[in-house]
Amino acid sequence: MLEEKRLRNYGTDAARTEQAGQGSNKMDKKNDQVAHRRIVAGREIPREYGQNNNSPATGITAVPLGQYVIANVRTALFTLLAAVGMVLLIACGNIANLLLTRGVTRQKEIAVRIALGASRSRLAQQLLTESIVLVLFGGLLGFLFARMGVPAILHYLPGDLPRASEITVDGRVLTFTALISLSTGILFGLLPMFQHQRVSAQDSLKQSGRGMAPSQSRLRSALVIGQVAIALVLLTGAGLMIKSFWTLLSVSPGFQTEHILTARLSLPPQYTNGSVFGVGQHRRISAFQRELLERVRGIPGVISAAFTAYLPLSGTESSWAFDIEGRPPRPVGVYNVAYYRPVSSDYFQTIGIPILRGRSFAPSDDEDSPLVAIINESMVRAFWGQQNPVGQRVRFSDQKWRTIVGVVGDVHHESLGTKPEPEMYIPYGQIANVESRPTIVLRTSVEPTSVTSSLRQALSQLDAGVPMDQIETMKQIVSSSVGQPRFRTAVLFVLAFLAVFVASIGLYGIMSYLISQRTREFGIRVAVGASTGALLRLVLGQALKLVSIGISLGLVGAMVLGKSIAGLLYGITPFDTATFASMSLLLAVVAFAASYIPARRAASVDPMVALRYE
Fold it and tell me: CB under 8 Å, gap of 24 or more: what pairs does 516-523 form?
């Protein structure tokens, strides 16, 4: 058995993983020397096997184990980490706006303290203390929520997420939360102090305490623009993920998923050593499988049953090199490779894989009959093109020719997101090496799980020493195969929702504050004849100007994000126009709603109340 294709894929993935992880984890000097010796040794392989060896499978690529384990989820985890950071930035923008607003209302208080002799450093200490207490309290609440929520979330993590069992809320998380909270409190707690340093105490005491300097207005506008931009980046990323996941779910796996139950057997040594001890033992294995299938087919509600060595989307694969009769030999080190699939008769009918040409396997295709094989459409396209392969012969490394008797439809064996590869199916009765963990597949007319106990009983009656596990329906297997895309899509959607929610609150707050500062102005406008519609257009125009700038900047950021997550998308481009346009429109509608309420309040102001307002 030659795992040439897997070796080639491993080398490509490992090289990509090593390149992506440069700078994040540095090996020590000893490990560098070991890795270097291994790579140099790998470069000698072509010389050992001839100068004509141009196969990309030759050579060795050494990568740290930690990088290899997380290679398939590295981009997704960093994307989610960046999304969390963006939500934190939006929340910090709201905190900054709140502290600036509170600083304006306390302007006269600060001026009185300065006039009574308080130093700037003393005032900074007071403001920092208030800010740090606020953010530490919020950080503590967040830590408690995480402590309660993370154990519940762990049950919904995909089963193939590396090191998921090690996720916990411990002292390291508490330390990280404390550091983030302190940094946020110090950074944004000093903003009001910088604001007060530009205004003298005498000028502050002369003012009414409700004025706002142009620099403060620009800072608030910048915070609103930044919040809108970040929210659009997250919204667009979530939109791309959702559309990609929806496209992935619409992919036909190549087989039917309804009313199909699967279960894996673990054959004991007396059943797996048949190829070593001779044909007689092999016949005994075939008899065991045939007898079990007969018993299972007699279970009420079971329509058909079959065996397979490698169930689709189960994560198990095996590939073999092969030759085609009548064609010249390939160069040294270059092989025809196809995935190897031992199955029993009725397998294609049971799981719903269509027979496109020729015939399916029959019970008579055993060790006493001519060797046969069935191939899939991808193998026909790759090695025969427009020719009909039925009737032609191929052979594996055992040098035994097999006649192709049929062509079946393509099946997504690895994942729904990867295209089908060339596959060759072999009858279970004609394989030389017995698989120790075959999977039995049942098609039922009733709920598949309802026949589980009967299946266990049939196996126990035949041989109680054969264990059975991984009892799942095909719907569950397909659902598990998209666990990681579903997980990252759901998390990014939740983060995007939080970002839009927090940003809309921030926009509502800043518009309410700006309107409160212009209450007298609105009263005068109404008194001299301004209409309600004119005031609405004035206020909404100011808000939509900020939102438009934020959306423009957000689109640039969304393009950068789309390019970085292109490898996580399926069936769509990272710059999907419909997604960008719909997410921008959605954010604009939310921003309009957040701005309309304070704008409506400003338009309905009573002139007499407004003119007396301070």
Answer: 516/210, 517/210, 517/211, 517/212, 518/602, 519/602, 519/605, 519/610, 519/613, 520/610, 520/611, 520/613, 522/602, 522/603, 522/605, 522/610, 523/605, 523/606, 523/607, 523/608, 523/609, 523/610, 523/611, 523/613
H or E stretch including 509?
helix 483-517
Q: What does the domain layout of the chain look like in residue ranges?
A: 4-69, 85-250+482-611, 267-466
Nearest Cα to Cα of residue 211 among 105, 127, 97: 105
Confidence of residue 49 (pLDDT cuts 50, 70, 90): low
Across 506-601, where does the E strand assignment appear?
none
pLDDT digit string (tens) for 243-277? 999 999 888 899 998 999 999 988 777 665 544 33
Name residue 294's amino acid: E
Specify whether the CB–CB gap between 362 and 345 falls below 8 A: yes
pLDDT at 539 over 90: no
- 460 has which bridge partners? none
Q: Which residue has the higher pLDDT, 597 or 229?
A: 229
Give the up-direction half-sphere exposure of residue 366: CA atoms within 13 A in the CB hemisphere. 12
The CA distance from 232 to 580, in Å, is: 9
The amino acid at 569: L
Give DSSP secondary structure letters for 520-546.
HHHHHHHHTT--HHHHHHHHHHHHHHH
Smallest Cα–Cα separation from 249: which of 37, 417, 445? 417
**How many whole angstroms separate alpha carbon 125 and alpha carbon 221?**
27
How far is the C-alpha of 521 from the C-alpha of 538, rounded, in Å?
A: 12
CA pair distance 45, 269, nearest whole angstrom: 36
Stated pTM of the model = 0.75
Query: What distance in Å separates the CA atoms of residue 91 and residue 139, rounded to the nearest whole number?
Result: 12
pLDDT digits (tens, 9 = 90+) for 540-550: 888 888 889 99
Token duo for residue 399:
């040098």
Output the pLDDT for position 127: 75
Structure tokens at 315: 């994560």
Neighbour count for residue 461 (Cβ, 10 Å): 11
Tally the C-alpha atoms within 13 A of residue 33's C-alpha that lie toward its C-beta: 3
